[in-house]
Each structure stands twice: as C-alpha cells, then as structure tokens.
Amino acid sequence: MACCVLQITGLVFGAVGMVGTLAATAMPQWRVSAYVDGNIVVFETIWEGLWMDCISQLGIRLQCKFYDSVLALPPPLEAFRALMCIAAGLSVAAFLMAIVGVQYTQRSKRGPQAVSIFILAAGVAFLLTGTLVLIPVSWTGGSIVRDFYDPEVPVPLKRELGAALYVGWGSSALLLAAGAMYC
C-alpha cells in the first residue's frame, strides 16, 4: 500500500514538474528590467527569455519579438535553449514511463514488491531532467545577481530574477523529488 502511495505521489510531482519545465522553457520572463538608482523609466517593463524579448508598457500593451537568428545569440543562451528543450522532452518521456510503470506494478502478479524497469527508468529520467532544468536556471540566476551588484554594468542594463526562474527552480525540485521517490 505504501508503495502505491509513493508511486502516485511521484507521478503527481513528476506531472507538475513536467508542466513547470514546459512553462519555464516557453516563458519570456527569465530576466526582468530592474528599477534602481536613477532609472526613472517605470512605465515600461522589459522581459528577456530564451526565445524572445518583450516590452510591456503600463501593463496594457505587450510587444514581443522573437530572436532573429540562432547564430546571433550568445553561446550561453544557445546552450540554455538546448538544455531546456532536452529537459522538456525528457520530462514528457519520464512521465509516460512512470505511468506505464505504475500500471505494470499494480497489475503485477508478484505483489507490490515487484520491481518494474519502467519505474526505475522513470526515476532516473526524472533525476536527469531535474538536473538539466537546474543548470540553466541557476546559471542565469547567478549571472543576474552578479551583474546586478557589478558597478561596471550600467543601470539601464541591470536585470532582476524573472518568474520563469522561480518556476524552473520549483519544477526542478519536484522532478528531483519524483526521481528520488521512483529510484
């Protein structure tokens, strides 16, 4: 009975982590404009994401522009895009493996102690996905904090942590927890 509860809890954590990974990958709020010192342009908010930049004016008008060329992007952004896309695909695969594993374990004739290869594979995939999400999110967060406190960076170029980073950290924690439950 405890095995089934643990598997269902892992499945729920994995599902929420998968949705969070997909959301963090698509959200444009990785870096958000900061209002510090003499920066008086408060009616305009700039969002920078993996796929586009957006400008929100007074919360009424939103203009977004996709990046023109993949080759013109900085190398870290290209790597973060790749890691998040791999993590999104792997999270979907891990979730599907977890569903199959839970069904196999519940229908198994050997009882609740039967070990399913799908459960173990889903656990490893969830752990790997959580790590893949954690790398670009934490790296971006660290660079934002470093640039924010760097006196060499001009005030208009300073950014704050965006909502996508918090979604990424939360989904990474849930994916790692789901992976630990399945392993």
UniProtKB/TrEMBL annotation:
* Entry keyword Transmembrane: yes
- Record membrane topology: Multi-pass membrane protein
Q: Which UniProt keywords apply?
A: Cell junction, Cell membrane, Membrane, Tight junction, Transmembrane, Transmembrane helix
- UniProt-annotated location(s): Cell junction, Tight junction; Cell membrane
**Cell membrane keyword on record:** yes
**Do you know which InterPro entries this protein is assigned to?**
Claudin, Claudin_CS, PMP22/EMP/MP20/Claudin
Gene3D superfamilies to which the protein is assigned, alphabetical: 1.20.140.150
Q: Where are the transmembrane segments?
A: 79-102, 114-141, 161-182
Coarse class of the primary localization is other
**Single GO MF descriptor:** structural molecule activity
Cite a GO CC annotation. plasma membrane
Give the family this protein belongs to, as stated in its UniProt record: Belongs to the claudin family.
Role according to the record: Claudins function as major constituents of the tight junction complexes that regulate the permeability of epithelia.
Protein name per its UniProtKB record: Claudin
Quick one: which gene encodes this? Cldn8
